[in-house]
User: Fold these one by one.
Assistant:
Number 1:
Amino acid sequence: MIAFDRSLKDMPLLEIDNLSVRFNTPDGVVQAVDGLSFALDAGQTLGIVGESGSGKSQTALAILGLLARNAKVGGSIRFENQELLRLPERKLSRLRGNRIAMVFQDPMTSLNPYLRVQAQIGEVLQRHRGLSQNAARAESLRLLDAVQIPDAAQRLRSYPHELSGGQRQRVMIAIALACQPALLLADEPTTALDVTVQAQILRLFKQLRQDLGVAIVLISHDFGVVAEVCERTLVMYAGRAAELGPTQTLLEQPAHPYSRALVGARPDLSAPVDRPLVTLPGQPPDLSALPPGCAFAPRCQWAEADTCTSAVPALRMLGTGRSAACARVEAVARA
Ligand SMILES: Nc1ncnc2c1ncn2[C@@H]1O[C@H](COP(=O)(O)OP(=O)(O)OP(=O)(O)O)[C@@H](O)[C@H]1O
Ligand SMILES: [Mg+2]
């Protein structure tokens, strides 16, 4: 019995196995996510980085069961030991907001412009946690304090347009935390904010993780953003995992040529987080007509005919908790 309990406790909070997301479009099938696998334990932080169109948001939306209608999803997404891809919509919608919460890029479009902050946080607390109006008010105040909004009592009476961009994002994070989720998915949560506010929000994520033990998946096209918060990082390219490992190792010794290019965009770790990305030569591939081998090969200086162009490279273990999907990884390491 004890062994059984322990094995349940040791189960990852989130376990994604061979996830694929395809979209049927008039121009063909778009393979947005392809054979993606990773796991996350309770209280852990994982960053997902990659260029625009690499499948980051579709991965998050697949976890939430919020993919567009033309999507076909395959593989497995287990969360708290339930298979989400087979969960009925009723149960999935209860899970969303309760156990898994999401923060998006643009807080203005997610907040209701006609409702005061108190009403928007309070609604979640009353509906999801069954709090009375008075208890919801006290808890809203506590949550605004937790996300470090000054003059919380006054801000509760504000409408979204009366808040700054950073304050609106803090309100969104407070709403996300209102249900005490086990997992927070944050998709480009700081992209619309200026540098100073961005740094404050990233610090807030770190603090929340420490104080509340909430697991965080933080999605960004900027390695610097992810490096501020996340213990581990998944680098995605063309819907696939290029590399997965401890963020620090990835920053110091990126193994995959694509990770190298992304990290090269931030050689100075003390540089401000808004440093622009170094643009890679070439274009990201057309996801409805991927080449037969490594999707990065056409842009890769280490690519070799046959080795890299005949089969999709598998994610290979390189060391503790570290893996990369590159057939030439040894040659890259020597360079
Ligand atoms: N409903 C849809 N129909 C067809 N293709 C779609 C649909 N939704 C997304 N895609 C495609 O899926 C691919 C992956 O999209 P995704 O939104 O995950 O990218 P991303 O990595 O989040 O990029 P960004 O950094 O720009 O947010 C893109 O090529 C996108 O055009
Ligand atoms: Mg996105």
Note: The chain has two domains: 40-69+84-99+181-334, 107-180.
Number 2:
Amino acid sequence: MGAVIAADYLVVGAGASGMAFVDALITHANVHVVMVDRRHGPGGHWLDAYPFVRLHQASDFYGVASTLLGEGRLQDSGPEAGLHERATAPEICAYYQRVLQRMVGSGRVEFHSGCEYLGGRAFVSRVSGRRFEVTETARLVITDYLGPDIPATTPPPFGIGAGARVIPVNDLVKVTEAPSRYVIVGSGKTATDACIWLLSKDVDPDAICWVRSREPWMINRAALQPEPEVFYRSAGDIMAAAVVATSPDDLFLRLEAAGVMLRIDRSVTPTMAKTPTIGVWEVDKLRTIEDVVRLGHLEHVDPGRLQFAAGDFRIPADSLVVHCAASGLKYAPVVPIWQPQAITLQPVRAGFPCFGAAITGYVEATRDDDAEKNRLCLPSPLPDTPASWARMQVMGGRASTAFALESDIRAWASRTTLNPARIPPEKADDPGVRAAAARFRAAVGPGLERMAQLAGMVDVAGPAAA
Ligand SMILES: Cc1cc2nc3c(=O)[nH]c(=O)nc-3n(C[C@H](O)[C@H](O)[C@H](O)COP(=O)(O)OP(=O)(O)OC[C@H]3O[C@@H](n4cnc5c(N)ncnc54)[C@H](O)[C@@H]3O)c2cc1C
């Protein structure tokens, strides 16, 4: 047996979810928390991020409820001038470091970095080998149930033959000699970031071959800003489109027409809807890459050859293959957040994982009964396809209704910028905001009812809050 630590909570993971949960918990309850992470500091996957990554959404939506990430300012130059700032990975890591210092300084939190949780409330330092146990009284909090897989820490999902040149996306910045072809493997945000970065370095679009096993739908960043009028206009567009949509694909095509969704190739109907946000300027650049390989999942790389189940694809022998194909989001089944063995963090509204973790921390701090907490915080899944995106909207809408009926939670949610649906008091009487919110409220009931049908859900959703 190792050293025994007395605590009220044992939180496994100090990524965005763990940090948002603990911040809200200790702000509203006098408790002692032990946080454990195998990484060397707080910030989770951001500590291993590729150097040119930024948040894909505005910084306001990310982080912990007590502390704004960034300064809430608009970008004043570049292709996104006028849109809200988006933090880089170093900015995010520095932010979490500051938040952690404050937590530890409060005396309510102790953080054990470089430690592996072993189960049974025990963990071991990966550096010293020292073992710790946390008292049975501590409630276990699992924060990485849906934590993303990233290329830096996940091997490529394809075989690599002798002599083939394959790097994770993180190593793109270390290239010292230009290959005649960059082969980008992946369809999601990481792959789009890699392509944009190469193009920004004056790599000829024809020197990029892009293996996209699926075509992605992405949200127009300009349509998802921390501005209530913008948010409610888009939310209203989504519900209005849903009411008349004939299928999940038709819903997305209508959202494209409304300027909410974007796709790279207008001649292909996307099947993937993880829906990160993207700038119109980025999509314009991505469209200059014409060598797109749509042969399904890459199975094996040899010098000069990509192998797919559907056949081989020739590439120059010196091609540099860039692994951007980690699965990113996880699709574990939705489970009750509060169970006897653990609190399992998941989104509590459609998307916005930091908000979900923070509201869970608030509810944990302010309620005693687990059944009541589960009634107030309904988990919602992450999206993968147009149909599962509709399902996320329905379940997220129900979750929003459940917590919004409680006045203290509504008041708490209206104070944090992590909540995309909040209307700050100074904007409450703005005519544009009022009109957009009213339009949304009129459409949300029928919109979600139709989305439940489109998603193939057996029961039909009732009206919901934003
Ligand atoms: C490139 C990228 C960009 C993104 N941009 C955005 C964005 O703009 N907006 C947005 O809302 N979302 C964004 N997301 C999604 C969002 O960041 C993630 O869902 C969220 O940050 C994940 O945080 P997490 O705490 O759930 O997981 P993680 O960051 O993976 O943290 C979990 C932590 O738990 C630790 N851990 C797990 N098991 C153990 C164990 N047994 N012992 C010890 N430690 C353990 C891990 O070391 C890890 O540090 C992005 C994701 C990626 C990959």
Note: The domain at 3-149+330-401 is CATH 3.50.50 (FAD/NAD(P)-binding domain).
